[in-house]
Amino acid sequence: MAFLERLLKGIDGFSLRLVWLSGTLLILAAFMVTIDVIVRKLFGVTMAGSDEITGYAFGISIMLSLSYAIIHRSNIRIDAAYQHMPKIVRAILDIFGMILLVTFIGFVAYRGWFLLLDSYEYGSRAITPLRTPLAIPQTIWFFGMAFAVFTGAVLILIGLGGLLKGDWKLINERMGIPTVDEQIEDET
Amino acid sequence: MLAHALLMLLGLIVLSVPIAASLGWLGLLMSYFHSIMPLHLAIGDIAWQNSTEFLLVAIPMFILLGELLLRSGITERMYNGMVQWLGWLPGGLMHSNIGACALFAATSGSSVATAATIGTVALPEVEKRGYNERLFLGTIAAGGTLGILIPPSINLIIYGLLTDTSVPELYLAGFIPGMVLAGLFMLTVIVACIYRREWGGRANHSSWQDKIDSLPGLLPPLGIFAVVVGSIYAGIATPTEAAALGVIAAIGLAAWNRSLTIPMLKRAIEGTMRTTAMIMLIILAAIFLNFILGALGVTQALAEFITSLGLTPMQTMLLIIGFYIVLGCFMETLSMLLTTAPLITPIVIALGFDPVWFGILLMVLLETALITPPIGINLYVVQGIRKSGSLNDIMVGILPFVFAMFAMIGLLLVFPNMALWLPNLFY
């Protein structure tokens, strides 16, 4: 257990760096798009591909941030029934929800892997003036999902360990639905 | 098949499975049980195409814009400015709450952030100036919902994407109803305070000098709103480009205020990316589910079922509105939008209603969902900042504003042009 918790700490730190990277990509994209709009308005010239590159930056940033979103319990869950349940049922629902979430992301990643393999094998390029080799953005995109699955798997193991020990508090802290106070703390 | 899908979705949601996983797994299960074709294999392509879709980039940009404004201290000055300009009305600061919420909503994507931010600044004033606490809390919870309707709204972008409706047209359409709804909220406060003078607390009388002095607090958010919405309306920029312009403007503004620091940027980025990753995962799952349901013919089956009821278009519309109001009591808004819009909108269009108009109506319904108990997140947010007292106070205080929203829905039904006039003027 101590090992898993240490691992989770490491993942958390790494995912935070991925989030900073993602945000920086988006801010750079915002600069690029702004310059594009201004140049287009003033000189009537369009920079080819600023929208395409922005799209890749976006796709990459979503997937690189997934792990952080999972660790920080940002997934929307409906707690209409959940909040009336005893602690043990909540803990089981928490782990069950996490398993379904991770397997779903895992399935997207699994199909994304085939997409990436195809792009790599056939040297697929975007049908745009940039002719971007799709394998490059898709590799980072896939890595984000794979890392999110890894993160979720570690959380599930921690959750199962907590279930064996009857440590409901731990499960709630790691993957329960945040209280409104925690949500406000996070959003402001 | 339709019943099967609904039952599974309901089951997953009641078990509090994350919405993204609920929608995604529903798609996988429906494909597994009801299709001979391996439809689910398309998810890789669907995820890649939509996660790099330029239109959707507007979502993280608007969230980032709101985060930047929030963390550069612009919001507090804006609230103080609103106090100077609106504080003289019967009901005093309660109008500032609504006005500040509307203005902050116009630049930020999150209704939680709006209600929480304005609430934090406004709540200490309740005792200081002797307001009726319940009504005061109601103005914050209700005002916080305006962000869904007033452009640039993230929900309108999602609706536009799911239903193939033009986002600039939706933005034009949302403008007047957004102003009218804010007006209705203020009217509610005025009527309440004329009826019971003691509810209104002490009004804030300010000189013209005070009003002018407060302008530096009000102009920045107004300026950013003008950059974002103006560039769309003027045809210079697409919604995504406008959002990028807004982000750069907000960074410039923060730098001007000397609040642009690395720690501040980091926190803004953390908030933005967490929300973005979560919203986008749900959107990707919803698009996948819609693909499966469309391929299986569930969408059509639902449309045929509704037609077979033999109701007039207006009766059907009232039925749909009733359905949303009930659903809104139990479901969170984004999930509600994503699961229902692709199914309901085709029916509405087939009945002869305008998709742009319906988009606006739907936003008002989603706003209602934000403040109807038991699952109205804004109620809990306001309660959360308040820390004491019972949730009941807020539920009572919000009631007049729920009726104002019903009035808004009625207005939209009777005068569809309230939403359609502006877009028709431009397109």
Short description:
The complex is a heterodimer of chains A (188) and B (427). Chain A has 188 residues and is mainly alpha-helical. In chain A, 78% of the residues lie in helices and 0% in strands.
Structure, explained:
The complex is a heterodimer of chains A (188) and B (427). In chain A, helix 3 (87-122) packs across helix 5 and helix 4 packs antiparallel against helix 5. Chain A is elongated. Chain A has helices spanning 2-43, 50-71, 87-122, 135-165, 168-175, 180-187. Chain A is built from six helices and no strands. By secondary structure, chain A is mainly α. By secondary structure, chain B is mostly helical. In chain B, 78% of the residues lie in helices and 0% in strands. Chain B starts with a helix and ends with a helix. The chains are: A mainly alpha (188), B mainly alpha (427).
What oligomeric assembly is this protein in?
heterodimer
Radius of gyration of chain A using CA atoms only: 20 Å
Percentage of residues assigned to helices of chain B: over 70%
Number of alpha- plus pi-helical segments of chain B: 22
The SSE string of chain B, one letter per element, is HHHHHHHHHHHHHHHHHHHHHH
Largest interface: A-B, 67 and 78 residues
**Fraction of residues in H or I helices of chain A:** over 70%
Low-confidence stretches of chain B: none
Parts with pLDDT < 50 across at least 5 consecutive residues of chain A? none
From the helix content, strand content and strand pairing of chain B, which structural class follows?
Answer: mainly alpha
Major sheet summary line of chain B: none
What is the averaged pLDDT score of chain A? Answer: 89
How is the main sheet of chain A built?
Answer: none
What is the tally of beta strands of chain A? 0
SS elements, strand count of chain B: 0
Average residue-wise pLDDT of chain B: 86
The percent range for strand residues of chain B is under 5%
Report, as a whole number of angstroms, the end-to-end distance of chain B: 40 Å
Our count of helices of chain A gives: 6
The proportion of residues in beta strands of chain A is under 5%
